[in-house]
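In response to reviewer comment 3 from the previous cycle, which asked for concrete evidence that the modeling workflow produces usable outputs, we include below a single protein chain processed end to end. The sequence was submitted unchanged, and the resulting structure tokens are shown without manual editing.
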Amino acid sequence: MIVLVGETFTGSIFYSHVMPAILGFLSIILICNGMMDESKKQVIIGVVLFFSAGLLPFIILRAVLGV
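The workflow returned the following structure tokens.
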């Protein structure tokens, strides 16, 4: 039973702290690159990725933690 709690805790840390930071960083790079190259597709993908970085942890953590 202790292993299950440890794995759940590790998974929740990844989805609540690591994944949003990586997605946010990539989205800022896409937004900046799209603005400099005047590519609307990259800007839109960057904006969608930025919002998903903020919202996905709330959706995924509910499934991981079983709430």
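The mean pLDDT is 84. We consider this sufficient to address the reviewer's concern, and the full set will be provided in the supplementary archive.
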